[in-house]
Structures are given as structure tokens and as C-alpha cells.
Amino acid sequence: GRVKMSCELMVVCAVQLGENLCLYFAELECDAFSKEKTLHRFLRNVNSQVLVVQPDLNMAAFEDVTDQEMKSGSGMNFCMHCYKTTTPSAGMPVAFSVQVEDKSYYMCCEEEHGKMIVRFREGEVPKDIPGESNIIFFKKTFTSYSSKAFKFEYSLERGMFLAFEEEDSLRKLILKKLPREDEVDETTKITL
Q1: Residue 23: pLDDT over 50
Q2: Residue 180: its pLDDT value, please?
Q3: How many CB atoms lie within 10 A of CB 3?
Q4: Residue 94 lies in a domain
Q5: Which of 39, 66, 121, 176 is the most exposed place for a label (fewest CB within 10 A)?
């Protein structure tokens, strides 16, 4: 059954975590990231909808899901991989992967028709990232007075954040440019 599989996945993540602890002492070059820990999270928007990924449709959207669907977790049980960084002021560097059926997909940003979009590609998140990477986002608190909600800035382009936009009654995951760092835009608010 599906439940058993996600238990195995957790064990795998825990093992990776164990291996990564030894990276703690390694010298880090500027803008190098090494994976420090992996957290299992559902990503929710301001409407408490859960982010669901459907790689076969090339789509990720925030949806209302039932408790039953959440138990299966397919396409919505994210691993948030936290990396050590040499420049902590930018926020904590994280990468996201999600389990769909028996495959793992990582979130990345790619340019398409001159526009940056969020994509999910089959594969694992690397343990070490030597330089810049299109899978790294900086996790920042959404507002200075709330520690529960976050926004995720794309590491390769300042001011670009994970967000959602409504399209055909779907709330699709997009990258959104915010003109100012301190702008409060509810579409970029994500709780874990």
C-alpha cells in the first residue's frame, strides 16, 4: 500500500540526514550549500489550501484536500531540504522535493518564453551545491511580527517569490516579482 511506501521514504530521509551531519565541519566556500536537514511538510496558502503537484500534467496548484487524501500524501507531502549557508542574511536556503507515487520530483525554476516558471523535474535533490542553483529558495518570515508564515525568494533573482495566481478556478504555483522587499502580498504567504 501507499502508506508503507511513505514510511520507507522517511527512513531514507533520516539516513541521508545522518550522513549529512559530518558535512557540518567542512569549509564552505561562498555561495556553496550543503544539506543540513530535511523536514516533511505540507505547504499551505493563505486560504489553508494544500500545494498539490501533478507532474504528468506539468502542474502544481493549491487545492482543498480531504484528510484521507492527505494521509496518502501523494503529490503533497513535501521534503524541505535545508542547507547550510555562508550568507545567512539572505534567509535559510531550502530546496523542495515531493513524492508522487513511487517517484521523487524536485522543484526548480526555468525560463520559458521569456518568463520564469516553476517546474517539477524527476530526480533527487543534491547533497552539496557548489555554486548558484535554480533549485534553491531563501526562506524568509512573511512579516517581521509573524514567525508562522513564510515567503520563499528565488535564489537567482532577488524579488521573485513563490506565489499563486488564480487561473480557471485553479490557484497555480508561480514565481511572482515583488517591486519592494517589504511588500505584504498575501499570494506569497506560505505556511508549513
Answers
A1: no
A2: 86
A3: 9
A4: yes
A5: 66
**Are the C-beta atoms of residues 34 and 26 closer than 8 Å to each other?**
yes
Q: What is the pLDDT of residues 86-95, one digit of tens each?
A: 777 788 999 9
- State which amino acid sits at residue 17: L
Query: Is there a contact between 182 and 141 (Cβ–Cβ < 8 Å)?
Result: no
Q: Do the domain assignments include residue 160? A: yes
- What is the CATH classification number for the domain harbouring 75? 2.80.10.50
**What is the predicted pLDDT for the residue at 49?**
96
DSSP letters for 83-145: EE-S-GGG-EEEEEEEEETTEEEEEEEEEETTEEEEEEEESPPPSEE-S--TT-EEEEEEETT
Structural domain includes residue 153: yes
Taking the C-alpha atoms of residue 62 and residue 44, their distance in angstroms, rounded to an integer, is: 7
pTM of the model: 0.81
Burial of 81 (0-12, 13-18, 19+ CB in 10 A): buried
Which three three-digit cell numbers place residue 117? 516558471
Report how far residue 80's alpha carbon sits from residue 97's, in angstroms, rounded to the nearest whole number: 7
Structural domain containing residue 142: 33-191
